[in-house]
Design brief:
The complex is a heterodimer. Chain A is 80% helix and 0% strand. Chain A is an all-alpha fold. Chain A has a single domain (9-198), classed as Cytochrome c oxidase, subunit III, four-helix bundle (Four Helix Bundle (Hemerythrin (Met), subunit A)), CATH 1.20.120.80. By secondary structure, chain B is an all-alpha fold. Chain B has a single domain, classed as Cytochrome C Oxidase, Chain A (Up-down Bundle), CATH 1.20.210.10. Chain B has a two-stranded antiparallel ribbon with strand order 1-2. The longest helix of chain B is centred in the first third of the chain and has 35 residues, at 91-125. Classes of the chains: A mainly alpha, B mainly alpha. The interface between A and B is large, with 40 and 44 residues.
């Protein structure tokens, strides 16, 4: 395996560069996936049947917390990748752990939000609006959940194998995924919650 | 669901017979593998392979099997409608058969045939040793195979989907389709769709990043161009299908209201989502065929492809337009004059780049010294027949006129006139053309040509009458009609044509057996005097593809090098890095299959346990240390020597 030491570890081999490129293409597909879910949501958002509309069920405080946690986690994973680039394994792991904990916090609030909705009688079966809302949020939440376990697997590998081209590559690709989920959340925050609260 | 309901399809004698034949076939295969002690060989060389050529062969083998399953469906439909008031099939059985015919032919015949050919040819054509992600490629295949197996299982256990391959709501909802048939639809297509999406990612990365030195984008062979564009369409279209199928599953199995008739649901949302994927899907199966024809016509007319740049441009334009025409599938939905007009114009616009391609092929052949080989016959047959399909497509594109054609046999005739000469002729041409590259011997030309004439003539006998029937008002998907309609004679003619088509396809398969027995082995590497890099390496291709990666300076480098007497594969042999085989994709897809199967029947506990199995394999893969292996210089030299036939 040829290692190009003029590049950061995660880009240092041909295979690594291919993987990063391939993951970007995959993220392109993910954008289409979420774009479709957003389209479904926008199509159905006023079709509430006999159920509540967005303004009636959305609460700003927990959503602001979710936003704060997820945006912060995007910042900390950026710090983690920076630490990885300067070869500081300990700092890298610390930032990744903080990132995953923030992700867990996000998920906790989101689950609480879903439970509240169901208690208020707003379930995924109530109306087309709620089906679309919960599917969109749920798909994002499942991505975060999957990301959490993925991140843990990578941390275990970094801990036991150290920073090498393989583990650095995995950690870097994971950071791309995590940032992507953050971007999706910004759209959810703006166009689902804020827009829903206004109307 | 009671056991009786689960096995209710078997009360039908035809289905019972098919079920028994599947079981007998499976037993024969298992017994054969055990008797000849081939399990180890089978697992090592096929089930756990990551070699793009073998994966491609498995795709094509599956496609041929499904061609027969879908073909039998088609024959049954034609037989049922051959005479008025026929009682061969009842309405339910007929519904199931036209649904599975459509699904199998598009998703499990056309798609894998195209993907199989791209697997075999693309790395060779760009001078690469494998695809970008060989393991992911195996995952793609096995997920596709899992979905394919699941859909075929529906036929025996629980009942097939019966709401048409488009599965429009509310018909496909639980109210009107209470059996598990449409659960199979959403889950089987989901599995194979994810496999296809991974193929898309893989081949874009392969073509963008792994071309031989010197091969810039505008020096790529036309087939490679068509596959690059096809895979870009896949990556942008398939996630829409993923979402649509997930919503369908939620609606049917979790009581959501997306496509419901009450509580704010919108049934036409399904139709829109389906066709936002479905129309690009048409181009996913047709563009590769355009690429194949471009290669074949240039090779057998012995001329450079006319208008290379305009060929590339027209494919790019087609791929963009393919995303902007989906509403033409339901002009009669009533979305207003403005919307219909816009979609009418975008649809007709597609005829322009397609016409450019047709003229380019004709001009390529002009003054050429044409060799009438089997692949070339398919390419030549394609042009006039496809043009009829294209012209009737423009007729259908006119929104106001479409109110007359909508849901009639005219439409059915039109899309068969596009898909059969386009996709089926395309993949068959490619299959005959690249067969010697895969196996080192040719398919018999005489049998191949006989099969072509059967197919080309009988295709028209089968489908041309349907244009007339459709204009006379014969609706599609009707399981029978009365004698007074006067539809009988043309339907009978169509059935006779269908029998002829069956003979043609049977000849194609017989040709495999015949050629395997009788055709000379050790065919030279460049059997057709080809133009592109795949002909520069041996037939069959060694696992590392090229001992020395060729350097490219222009389009059709290999052709010009031959003329100048240069050997582009000469050079210093170095050790070659190759990926290791792995059983993980096979087993992981097996668990995916189980999870989806249990989910069809709402058995959530075993489904979740199976999904844990899937994640287990993902974790195993993540922790595995596997850096591949090296083939030594001596080993490469020995292989090269034996393949050249040196003693």
């Amino acid at each position: 395996m040829k290692i190009d030491s003029s590049l950061p570890l995660e880009y240092s081999t041909e295979e690594n560069r291919l993987k990063i490129f391939g993951f970007w293409i995959f993220l392109g597909a993910e954008i289409v996936l979420f774009a479709t879910l957003f389209t479904v949501y926008f199509t159905l958002q006023t079709r509430t049947g006999s159920g509540p509309n967005g303004a009636e069920i959305f609460e700003l405080t927990p959503v602001l917390w979710e936003t704060f946690l997820l945006l912060t986690s995007s910042f900390t994973i950026g710090l983690g990748v920076h630490a990885m680039r300067i070869g500081n394994k300990k700092a890298m792991m610390a930032f990744f752990i903080i990132t995953l904990l923030l992700g867990l916090g996000f998920l906790g609030i989101e689950i609480d939000e879903f439970v509240t909705y169901v208690e208020e009688g707003a379930t995924i079966q109530t109306s087309a609006f709620l089906s679309a809302l919960m599917t969109l949020l749920g798909t994002h939440g499942l991505h975060v959940t999957f990301g959490f376990f993925w991140g843990v697997a990578i941390l275990i590998q970094v801990a036991s194998r150290g920073l090498n081209p393989q583990t650095a590559n995995k950690a870097f690709i994971f950071s791309l995924y995590w940032h992507f989920l953050d971007v999706v959340w910004i759209f959810i925050f703006s166009f689902v919650y804020l827009k829903g609260l206004i109307s | 669901m009671s056991m009786e309901e689960v096995f209710h399809p078997m009360q039908e004698p035809m289905i019972l017979a098919a079920a028994i034949s599947i079981v007998v076939g499976a037993v024969v295969i298992v017994a054969g593998l055990t008797y000849f002690k081939k399990w180890g060989y089978f697992y090592k060389n096929w089930l756990s392979t990551v070699d793009h050529k073998k994966i491609g062969i498995m795709y094509i083998a599956t496609a041929l099997l499904m061609l027969f399953r879908g073909g039998i469906d088609a024959l049954l439909m034609r037989a049922q409608t051959a005479v008025p008031d026929n009682g061969l099939l009842d309405a339910q059985h007929y519904n199931e058969i036209f649904t599975t015919h459509g699904l199998l032919m598009i998703l499990f015949m056309a798609m894998p045939f195209v993907i199989g050919l791209m697997n075999i040819v693309i790395p060779l054509q760009i001078g690469a040793r494998d695809v970008a992600f060989p393991r992911l490629n195996a995952v793609s295949f096995w997920l596709f195979a899992a979905g394919c197996g699941l859909l075929n299982l529906s036929f025996i256990i629980g009942g097939s989907p019966d709401a048409g391959w488009t599965a429009y709501f509310p018909l496909a909802g639980t109210e009107f389709s209470p059996t598990v048939g449409n659960n199979y639809y959403s889950l089987a297509l989901q599995l194979s769709g994810i496999g296809t999406l991974m193929t898309g990612v893989n081949f874009i990365a392969t073509i963008i990043k792994m071309r031989a030195p010197g091969m810039t984008l505008m020096k790529m062979p036309m087939f490679t161009w068509s596959i690059l564009i096809t895979n870009i369409i896949i990556v942008f279209a398939f996630p829409v299908l993923t979402v649509a199928l997930a919503l369908m599953m939620l609606d049917r199995q979790f009581g959501t209201q997306f496509f419901a008739m009450q509580n704010g649901g919108m049934d036409m949302l399904w139709a829109n989502l389906f066709w936002v994927w479905g129309h690009p899907e048409v181009y996913i199966v047709i563009l590769p065929a355009f690429g194949i024809f471009s290669e074949i016509i240039a090779t057998f007319a012995r001329k450079n492809l006319y208008g290379y740049k305009s060929m590339v441009m027209s494919m790019v334009v087609i791929s963009l337009l393919s995303f902007l025409v989906w509403a033409h599938h339901f002009y009669t939905m009533g979305h207003g004059v403005m919307v219909n007009s816009v979609f009418s114009i975008t649809t007709m616009a597609i005829a322009v780049p397609t016409g450019v391609k047709i003229f380019n092929w004709l001009l390529t052949m002009r003054h050429g010294k044409i060799q009438f080989t089997t692949p070339m016959l398919y390419a030549l047959g394609f042009i006039p027949i496809f043009t009829i399909g294209g012209v009737t497509g423009v007729m259908l594109a006119m929104a106001s006129a479409d109110y007359q054609y909508h849901n009639t046999m005219f439409l059915v005739a039109h899309f068969h006139y596009v898909l059969i000469p386009g996709t089926v002729f395309g993949v068959l041409a490619g299959y005959h053309y690249w067969w010697p590259k895969m196996f080192g011997f040719r398919l018999n030309e005489k049998l191949g040509k006989t099969a072509f004439w059967f197919i080309a003539v009988c295709f028209n006998v089968t489908f041309f009458p349907l244009f007339i029937l459709g204009l006379d008002g014969y609706a599609r998907r009707m399981y029978t009609y009365s004698e007074s309609t006067g539809y009988g004679p043309l339907n009978m003619l169509s059935f006779i044509g269908g029998l002829g088509l069956a003979v043609g396809f049977a000849l194609i398969v017989y040709n495999i057996y015949y050629s395997w027995k009788h055709m000379p082995r050790n065919e030279k590497a460049d059997v057709w005097d080809g133009r592109t890099l795949e002909w520069a390496t041996h037939s069959p291709v060694p696992e590392y593809n090229f001992a020395v990666v060729p350097t490219v300076t222009r389009l059709d480098e290999y052709w010009f090098a031959k003329k100048e007497g240069r050997d582009i594969t000469a050079g210093k042999i170095e050790k070659i890095h190759m990926p290791n085989n792995t059983g993980t994709p096979f087993w992981m897809s097996g668990f995916f299959f189980l999870a989806a199967f249990f989910a069809v029947f709402n058995l959530w506990v075993p489904a979740i346990i199976s999904m844990i199995g899937v994640f287990g394999f993902m974790i195993h893969r993540s922790f595995e240390k596997d850096h591949g292996r090296y083939i030594s210089v001596e080993e490469v030299m020995a292989t090269e020597k034996s393949l050249r036939g040196d003693k």
